[in-house]
Amino acid sequence: MPAPPAHTPRKAALAFIFLVVLIDVLAFGLIIPVLPHLVEEFTGSAAGAALWIGIFGTVFATIQFASAPIQGALADRYGRRPVILLSCLGLGLDFIIMALAPTLWWLLLARVFSGVFSASFSTANAYVADITPPEQRAKRYGLIGATFGVGFIIGPVIGGWLGGIDLRLPFWFAAGLALLNFCYGLFVLPESLPPEKRARRFDWTSARPHASLLFLRRYPAIWGLAAVVFIANLAHYVYPSVFVLFADVRYGWGPREASWVLALVGVCSVIVNVLVIGRVVKAVGERRALLLGLSCGVVGFVVYAFASEGWIFLLGLPISALWALAAPATQALITRQVDVDMQGRVQGALMSLVSVAGIIAPISFASVFGLFISDRAPVAFPGAPWMLAAVLLALAVLIAWRHARPAPVAEVAAQP
Hints:
Elements: H1 10-31, H2 35-43, H3 46-78, H4 80-100, H5 104-117, H6 120-131, H7 137-165, H8 169-187, H9 209-215, H10 223-236, H11 238-251, H12 255-306, H13 310-321, H14 326-335, H15 343-372, H16 384-403, H17 409-414
Helix pairs in contact: 1-6, 1-7, 1-8, 2-3, 3-4, 3-5, 3-11, 3-15, 4-5, 4-6, 4-8, 6-15, 7-12, 7-14, 9-15, 10-14, 10-15, 10-16, 11-15, 12-13, 12-14, 12-16
Keywords: Membrane, Transmembrane, Transmembrane helix, Transport
Subcellular location: Membrane
Transmembrane segments: 12-35, 47-70, 82-102, 108-129, 141-163, 169-189, 221-239, 259-277, 289-307, 313-334, 346-373, 379-401
């Protein structure tokens, strides 16, 4: 079926892309509370499950690292819409494989599929850049963040409830949502990049993973920001790598309890993205918003690391939620430095950085967690992965302080 007209009003197009992102996040959120426990059924121990979750994350990120630049180049050459549709279809098939998996190796195969097709988030960022004036991008990326938050409010709660019935039921539900997303995009989602603004040809040389990273050399003004993206995502991987197993070991929380905590994380994220980001960026500018967000992330992770009781851990959630200030501010600062026909490739290159972080982080956090809950631990400290994440974010603060350039005063004043 041909794409809907490209001249669809911008507000409608933005609503379309928000719904695409929402359903994708909802599908991922469904499996978060149950995947570690499914792996634990196969391995027989929390430490063994932590190691395999780390392996899954590393495999996923390695495949994504190879795929993301190709997807970014395809989006610049052929448009955003077909890449988003292919992603939704592929993720639907991935969740079906996970639902049927009889062994850990089937789950590993599913991670390979997921790494290949998980392009919709980076392409969505390019889509938003296509239809949004530069001075409004931080606010729009904040709304994308809010969409993530809504997905993580609803998804884990449904996943935890369904997982209480059967650990595989959330995977079937997630598959249905992803395939519904594909059908929605097929009939409704308009193209955001008109033919005259697309790259003239698809360049396989530039689509190679290392070439995608080298591509960032064309934009030295964003090198420091790219480093912040890398380190921040490195730290963020602590959540999918250890949270569910950490909550079980430290506080005795099962899938349902963990899902309610994840839902609370989503509520805090929505509040920050909808009510806080636009006001803070308007008041202090993108650079200061970035620094404030990263600093709150450091404090939140330190609280998590040393929280001896579940209620203390919960006190860290609203502090850590302010970390959400950083991502849209970083994206807005980066997009100011990039030509319109290069947005997809830059986003693909940044996604490659995220993938490199994903290659390193899951096995690192899982290994640290496994070590500090094992008999070999120098000291029993289940919060060690959170402390490592806090140190990483502190490094990101220093880099952002040095390299993030504020927007021109006239542009900041013009933001709604």
